[in-house]
Amino acid sequence: MKILIIGTGGIGAYYGYFLQQSGNDVVFTARGEHLAALEENGLTLIHEGTTYCTPVKAHTHGYLAQHFEANEFDLIILTLKAHSTDAFVKEMGSWLTSHPTFVLSLQNGVDNENILADLLGSQYVLGGLAVRIGSHVLSPGVIQSTGKAEIIIGAWPNDAEHSSPVPSIVSQFSDVLAQASIPNQVSTDIRRELWRKLMINNGVNPLSAITGLDTFALTNHERLGSLVYGMMQETVNAAKADGVELTQQDLSEMFELIKTFKPIKTSMLMDKEHGRKMELDSIIGVVLQRSETLGIQAPYNTMAFALLTSET
Asked: Which positions make up the signal peptide (predicted)?
């Protein structure tokens, strides 16, 4: 496949590296010092103690718009921070719509696919999530990652809401991931899977940014662990606003998953430490907004949002 990775951060670089190594034609986008390092030295990936290096094709969005048509790519994978999705659509929307192709969001939150579907139509949008992975930019051109690094993908918002057959691109990309030795699952209800992941993100990201603790220390703390669980419970409650019915079993499974996962610094904690904008709206704000729609309270999320916004 010919694949475009929009945003070569920890997630985009990790999956892009292995997709390229398995024979796919992969193009990356980046900017600033990170782009310069990719162009000069290639991509370096450090995963579970092993270092991998490869030359890559990396460009700015401007270069991309001038030298490529969107449908030259079989699949475009969006791995930007969720708060950058609107800006990306404003910048590259006409480029995407002039020659549409399939776009997969591998981002935090549950609203990125809605933004893309408003632009392209849901027939061109795939939802996805990266699970059991911690990955971040260690230095320009260098990525450090840990975990099994699985991908779950599916047609947006789910198979049942597609009047026509689900795009074959879903099964095709699943096969491509398998050939690249990337564990993956195809979901018939990807919107539900995104809300399940949001449970974890909402549970640990804000509290890790507040406390400075990694996921293992946070979830296994005598008192803080119960706060994580409370944040996750409020996510379960809020999901009903999108017609997603999560259960106590979902909550227990997701809490046990993050509680037993290798200790990692959350993306929100990393962003805070490096003075970058945190994904507050896509992780906490979405729970508060959906809770307001339903007329219910979300006191844990309200507290976390207040504490984190008071620092910015």
From this structure: none
Q: Which residues pair with 120 in a beta bridge?
A: none
Q: Using alpha carbons, list the distances in angstroms from residue 108 to 11, 35, 112, 198, 297.
A: 11, 23, 8, 7, 23
The pLDDT tens digits of the residues spanning 98-152 come to 999 999 999 999 999 999 999 999 999 999 999 999 999 999 999 999 999 999 9
Parallel, antiparallel, or unpaired for β 43-47 and 142-146? Answer: parallel
Same domain, residue pair 72 and 110: yes
Tell me, yes or no, whether 15 and 164 share the same domain: yes
**Domain final position from 158, 188, 218:** 188
**Separation CA 2–CA 75 (nearest Å):** 7
Residues 34 and 71 in one domain: yes
CB neighbours of 105 closer than 8 A, spacing ≥ 6? 78, 85, 112, 113, 116, 125, 126, 127, 128
Q: Which two tokens stand for residue 130?
A: 């990266």
Cα–Cα distance measured from residue 44 to residue 114, given in angstroms and rounded to the nearest whole number: 33
Tell me how far the alpha carbon of residue 217 is from its chain's centroid.
23
Residue located via tokens 């037993």: 260
Q: What is the arrangement of strands in the sheet containing 125-131, beginning at the earlier edge strand?
A: 57-59, 25-29, 2-6, 75-78, 102-105, 125-131, 150-155, 184-186
Q: Which of 150, 166, 188 is the last residue of a domain?
A: 188
Q: Give the gyration radius of the chain's Cα atoms.
A: 19
Q: How many domains is the chain partitioned into structurally?
A: 2
| Structure tokens belonging to residue 249 | 């079993």
pLDDT at 165: 74
Task: State how far the Cα of 224 lies from the Cα of 219, in Å rounded to an integer.
Answer: 7
Could you give the strand order of the β-sheet that contains 43-47, starting from the edge strand earlier in sequence? Answer: 50-54, 43-47, 142-146, 134-139
